[in-house]
Design goal:
The protein is mainly β. The chain contains 1 helix and 11 strands; from the N terminus they run H-E-E-E-E-E-E-E-E-E-E-E. This is DUF4352 domain-containing protein.
Length: 181
C-alpha cells in the first residue's frame, strides 16, 4: 500500500468509528421513558394519565386551607384523569428539573400530588414546588407521570421559562376536586 493512502484510510476509519458511537444507544436507553411533549393549556396523553396544565405561577406566599408557607413557590394548576384504568392510577410522579437539579412536588400543602384519578372524569388541582431564590431565572421542565417509576413508561414533559413568569405575592392552591367543563 502506498504511504499517502494510509492517512486518508485512517481518517475514514476514525470517522466511521465516530459514526458508530453516535448510533450506539446509551446503557439505559432500553429502559428510558417515552417522553410525551406538553404545552400550556393543551392535553397531553401518556400511557396511564391524561394531563392539561392550565396555569403556572410564581409566588412568595402559598396557602391551602389552614396551611400556609413563605418562600419561592412555583404553583402549577392542572386537570388530570386516568387514561386506561383506575386501579392504582394516581398523579404519582411530579417533578421540576432545573439544570442538573430536580425538585419534587411538595407534600407539605394539601395538593393534587399523589391523588387518585378516574378514567374519563378529569379532576383539577394544584401542585406546589418550593424552589431556591436563584432558580427563578432559569429554564425548567415540568415532568408528570402516573408513578415515580417511569422506566419503559410515558413521561409528560412541559418546558417552562421561569424568567418569563411574573411573581405574585400570594397564591391559594386550587382545592382538588372535579374539573369544570
Amino acid at each position: 500500500m502506498r504511504r499517502w493512502l494510509a492517512w486518508p484510510m485512517g481518517a475514514a476509519l476514525l470517522f466511521g468509528a465516530w459514526l458508530v458511537t453516535l448510533a450506539t444507544p446509551t446503557a439505559d436507553a432500553d429502559e428510558a421513558p417515552f417522553v410525551v411533549p406538553a404545552a400550556l393549556g393543551e392535553e397531553a396523553r401518556g400511557r396511564s394519565i391524561t394531563v392539561t396544565v392550565t396555569d403556572v405561577r410564581l409566588a412568595e406566599h402559598v396557602s391551602a386551607g389552614a396551611w400556609a408557607g413563605e418562600g419561592v413557590w412555583l404553583v402549577v394548576d392542572l386537570d388530570a384523569a386516568a387514561a386506561r384504568e383506575e386501579d392504582r392510577t394516581a398523579l404519582g410522579g411530579a417533578s421540576l428539573a432545573i439544570g442538573e437539579r430536580t425538585y419534587r412536588a411538595s407534600e407539605r400543602p394539601p395538593s393534587f400530588f399523589q391523588q387518585p384519578l378516574l378514567v374519563g372524569i378529569p379532576r383539577e388541582g394544584s401542585l406546589a414546588f418550593e424552589l431556591p431564590p436563584d432558580a427563578v431565572h432559569e429554564q425548567a421542565v415540568l415532568r408528570l407521570s402516573g408513578d415515580w417509576e417511569t422506566r419503559l413508561d410515558s413521561l409528560i414533559e412541559l418546558p417552562l421559562d421561569l424568567a418569563d413568569l411574573d411573581p405574585v405575592d400570594s397564591v391559594e392552591l386550587t382545592e382538588t376536586g372535579w374539573a369544570r367543563p
